[in-house]
Structures are given as structure tokens and as C-alpha cells.
């Protein structure tokens, strides 16, 4: 086995493409699995317009079509990155990588938002190390294979599981950290990655669902309206309470109100309107990620006996309007 | 003054037209104020297709245009019935009858849904008796001046105000009761009309707002979906709690759960899909009655220190989607 890292990226929208480009820059052989943008990427790779890294063309070493799911691969991948949407209510997300995992040494790296996204992978691949990540990359695929990227490129991560078998060793974390640094990706080994996931969820759950249900408002408009801003704050408070109960510790050391305030301030001071991916999904009549962003937290809250009237309301309305569209 | 009753009906949709027809049948002189259906009604009256009363044409004694608001009237009306929508957030609803009230003896009869609908009238006409009603009439204006009516025709009512001045006497109630009976309208003098209003509101608040926010589902579909049905039940529970606190007594003698169950059963066993007026208003880009149906109850709940997370959520989303449409 050559020392060159062999990497697969499944789901190459804005996030997957930027990471793929960085990993190739760091010397890895990078394969990508594409769905809607397959033809474009196969033809001419990704055009990446990045404020952080400059304008580049990223031509993957191998482009695989997601539709050709018989394409079992005999290649050994050091890392399989999953940056598809997480839709366990539609299909088992772990099946997307089944053709590509032929060794327990392949490290599965999950870049998805939400709570409980790791479960389908840990069930299907119980012997593989799974790295659960919180992604901070402000990139979008503005048209198939054309990626607009800002200045953020950061991964927070740690193992999914408290199990500290030898395989789930610090060596894996150190190697991954070194590789990310080589790729000029900011690397943060989080002492409590689930806490980070809940912190990100507080924003995603409130912003995504309320944007869709309010008729398609951007974050700034929602924050400027007293009623929707109050609703966003109340929803975030609910998520903080659930996360606290599920993890048996507060999500932040300081004041929850200050955290919520910082989310709201951030969106109020942004120069441009920012829309959540859930709204794009709704507008383009694609399934929304309401399972991992709202329903899984509600289910965990019930087990922890925490009341979630707002999350339940938003969920009921979201699946109802989705049902009339899909 | 002749003994013939002189009646004005302001707002002649399905409800106003059916009552007008009945009052003329009972021997009254009936004038109507029309908005969108003025030309049609002026030309040929109302065609009323009623399962209860048979098919009739109701030609009002006088048809007044709502747009001609300079038309101050020197006629004395015994009763002014108000069956317009209640939109205090858009305009003062009491102004619609200002040209027609020239005596403190005119009895104002409010047929509108919601809480606090009487306030604008009691402020503008502090000396007139105001009868607050809960209307049970299943009629719809299927096209301008064409009314479809089922089998219900009932009014529950009593004075708005606890003030028992001589003018607000039992004589007024008795006369009104006798007149309704003559008109073959079922007449129920309610010992606690505000309680009846809250009971009706429990359904209206839940059904109207959730129908709109769920993408336009009818009552039966909402009740058949476990998530939206749970949301409707929870919303009704909230309204019951607010009404209880505001009136300082429970809305029903028995179990709240049984009352909620009866609302849900009723809608589940209906042969046809039934849609709330709030949905029609939303679909036709007209203002919705969210002020009197949701916001006023929220404000009263705050004063009574009752928590209303669901009503607040529904309200925030409703005014947000309305803002993008009107």
C-alpha cells in the first residue's frame, strides 16, 4: 500500500467539493461520488471560486456516479467522507457508502448536520472508526460543478462512540489532524463533539424550519421581525434544554441567552441575505432534513422527559407541507 | 314609529344573507350593506339554497354599498347586525356601522368569531346595547349573491358587558328571542356568552391556523394525520387553559379531553372536506382574522400569566406568511 492517502467523498455539493480540492492539494488520491452534477464533473471537474484559497479547478482522480450503485469498488479507501444530505426517513444514508467499504480500517468521516446522523453508519459498519464532524465551511454549489467558497474552512471532530478500543486510538485523530493541516483545513479535535453538534443544531433547527414555514424568509428578515425572532429564540432555548438533558451537561459554560444573542447578532450583521438549505430543499421540492434536525431531537427529548412544544409544532407543520409537495 | 322592525345587516356573506332572509320572512324591513357582491345583490337579490328553509330568493328592502361610506342614514334601525370579518389590525371594525347608528336605542348584534371583537364597538358606541353572539349557521356564499345553506340556523347570545343598566334589560333579550323564533332561527340566551365564545375559539384557533400553515389541509386530513392532529389537540388545550384563566372558571363542566375529542370526532365523521375561512382568506390573499382569533387570546393569556407557546408560534408564522402575500 502506497503512503498516498486514498480518499472518497460521497456527496459533492459545496462542502464536499471544497474538501476534495484541499485533500488533493495535500497529496491524496481523491475520488468523488456525484449525483446530479455527475456529467459536468466527469467532463471538466469542479470550478472552485474561493476567497480563502483562490480560484482553482479541482479534477478528481476518479468520478463515480451515485446512480451506478452496482459499482463495487476493490480500492481501499483510507477515508470515506460523507457529505450528502441525511435523510434516514427516505433511505438508509449508510447504504450510499456500502459499495466502498471493504475494510474495517477505512475511517468514515461524517460531515452532516443533525442529531443521530451517525446511527445508520455505526449499525452498518460496527467495526469501522467513525469520525463525527461539525463543519464550518461557507461554500455553495451555485450551479452544477461551480462552487462559490468564502473564507471559512474548518472541521471540529472526534470519534462517534465512547468506546475506546485500540482501533479508536489517538493515532487516528493525530493522523487526521496532521492531514487536515497539510490540506490547510483548520482542524479542531473537539473534546465533546456531540456538544458541538447540539450547538450547531440550535441554530439549524430554528432557522431552517422557521424560514420554510414563514414563507421563505432569510435569516436577517427573521431576526428583524419581532415575532419570528422571538420564535427563533424560543426554539433555540428548547434545543439547548434538550441537548443539556441528553448529554447530561449544559451545552455552554456561560449563559444560554448570550449564545442565542450571538447567533441572532451574527445574522443581523451579515451583509447579504442567507437562506438555509432546508428552504432550498423545500423550494426545489426535494426532501428536507427534518428527521435529523428536528425529529431525532424530539424523540431524545421524550426519553429525557423534556418538553418540546415548539419543535413538535414546527415538525408537524414541516412534514405536512412537505407531504403536499413531494 | 311603526311596529315593523327595521334591521340592517352589515357584511352579507353566507351568514348575513341567511339571517337577512329569515328576518324579512319574520316581517322586518331588512337593509343590507354589501361590498364585493353589491352589484349582483342590487340587481337580483340573494339566491339562497337552503336544506333547512328550502330554496328562496331574498330581495333586501334596501341595498347599500360599503364603498359609499358617506351615505349617512337617517333611518332608525332597531337592530344592526355585524357579520363582517373582524380585522381590528387592519381597520376599526366599528367604523363600518358608524353611519347607521343615530340612536342609543339601536341594538348592535355582533356575529363575529374571536375574542375581544366587542371592544371596538363598545368604545365607539358606549350607550348602545351590544349583543355578543356565537353563530351556528353552516352557510357559504359560493359565488357573489349565491348562498348555499345546510341545516343549522342558531344564535347563542347575551349582552356584552356585565353592566345591568335599565337599558340592558331582560326586555331586550326577550324581544330579541321572540323575534328570532318568529324568524325560525333557533334562539339560545346564553347564561355565559363569553364561555361559548372561548369554546368556539378553541376550534377556530387550532383549525384555521394549522390548516393555513400545513399547506391548506381540510379538517379531516388534519385530524387523520397524527402530527397535525396532536398539534390541533395541544392548541385547543392551550385555548381551554387561557379561557379558564381569563373567565376565572373552566369552559366546560366535564372533561376538557372529552370536549377536544368531540371536536376531532365531529370533523372525522363529516362526509365532505371542510376548510376554514382563514384558509380561504389566505388563498385569496385577503387579510386573515388572526388578531381576534389568536393575538387577542395571547395578550389576555399574558395578563393572566398563562403560557401559550403554540398560539405564539402559530401567530408568528401566520403573520409572517401573510406579510409576504398581502
UniProtKB/TrEMBL annotation, chains A, B:
InterPro entries per the UniProt record, alphabetical: 6-PGluconate_DH-like_C_sf, 6PGD_dom2, ApbA, KPA_reductase, KPR-Related, KPR_N, NAD(P)-bd_dom_sf
Homology family: Belongs to the ketopantoate reductase family.
SUPFAM superfamilies: 6-phosphogluconate dehydrogenase C-terminal domain-like, NAD(P)-binding Rossmann-fold domains
Listed Pfam families: ApbA (PF02558), ApbA_C (PF08546)
Domain of life: Eukaryota
One BP annotation, GO: pantothenate biosynthetic process
Signal peptide (from-to): none
The protein's name in its UniProt record: 2-dehydropantoate 2-reductase
Organism: Smittium simulii
Entry function: Catalyzes the NADPH-dependent reduction of ketopantoate into pantoic acid.
Residues annotated as domain Ketopantoate reductase C-terminal: 192-320
Domain (Ketopantoate reductase N-terminal) ranges: 7-149
GO cellular component: cytoplasm
Molecular function as annotated in GO: 2-dehydropantoate 2-reductase activity
Enzyme Commission (EC) number: 1.1.1.169
Keywords: NADP, Oxidoreductase
Amino acid at each position: 500500500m502506497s503512503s498516498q492517502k486514498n480518499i472518497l467523498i460521497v456527496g459533492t455539493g459545496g462542502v464536499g467539493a471544497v474538501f476534495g480540492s484541499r485533500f488533493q492539494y495535500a497529496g491524496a488520491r481523491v475520488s468523488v461520488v456525484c449525483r446530479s452534477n455527475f456529467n459536468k464533473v466527469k467532463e471538466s471537474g469542479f470550478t472552485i471560486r474561493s476567497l480563502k484559497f483562490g480560484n482553482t479547478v479541482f479534477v478528481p482522480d476518479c468520478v463515480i456516479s451515485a446512480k451506478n450503485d452496482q459499482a463495487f469498488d476493490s480500492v481501499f479507501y483510507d477515508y470515506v467522507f460523507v457529505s450528502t444530505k441525511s435523510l434516514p426517513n427516505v433511505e438508509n444514508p449508510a447504504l450510499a457508502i456500502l459499495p466502498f467499504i471493504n475494510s474495517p480500517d477505512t475511517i468514515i468521516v461524517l460531515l452532516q448536520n443533525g442529531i443521530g446522523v451517525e446511527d445508520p453508519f455505526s449499525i452498518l459498519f460496527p467495526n469501522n472508526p467513525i469520525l463525527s464532524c461539525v463543519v464550518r465551511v461557507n461554500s455553495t454549489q451555485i450551479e452544477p460543478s461551480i462552487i462559490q467558497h468564502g473564507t471559512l474552512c474548518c472541521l471540529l471532530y472526534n470519534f462517534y462512540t465512547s468506546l475506546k478500543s485500540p482501533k479508536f486510538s489517538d493515532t487516528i485523530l493525530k493522523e487526521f489532524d496532521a492531514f487536515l493541516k497539510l490540506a490547510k483545513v483548520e482542524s479542531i479535535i473537539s473534546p465533546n463533539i456531540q456538544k458541538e453538534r447540539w450547538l450547531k443544531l440550535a441554530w439549524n433547527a430554528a432557522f431552517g424550519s422557521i424560514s420554510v414555514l414563514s414563507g421563505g424568509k432569510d435569516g436577517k428578515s427573521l431576526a428583524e421581525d419581532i415575532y419570528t425572532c422571538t420564535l427563533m429564540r424560543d426554539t433555540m432555548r428548547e434545543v439547548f434544554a434538550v441537548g443539556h438533558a441528553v448529554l447530561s451537561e449544559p451545552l455552554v459554560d456561560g449563559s444560554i441567552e448570550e449564545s442565542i444573542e450571538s447567533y441572532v447578532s451574527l445574522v443581523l450583521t451579515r451583509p447579504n441575505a442567507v437562506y438555509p438549505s432546508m428552504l432550498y430543499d423545500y423550494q426545489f421540492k426535494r426532501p428536507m432534513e427534518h428527521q435529523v434536525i428536528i425529529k431525532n431531537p424530539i424523540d431524545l427529548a421524550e426519553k429525557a422527559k423534556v418538553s418540546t412544544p415548539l419543535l413538535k409544532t414546527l415538525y408537524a407543520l414541516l412534514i405536512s407541507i412537505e407531504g403536499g409537495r413531494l
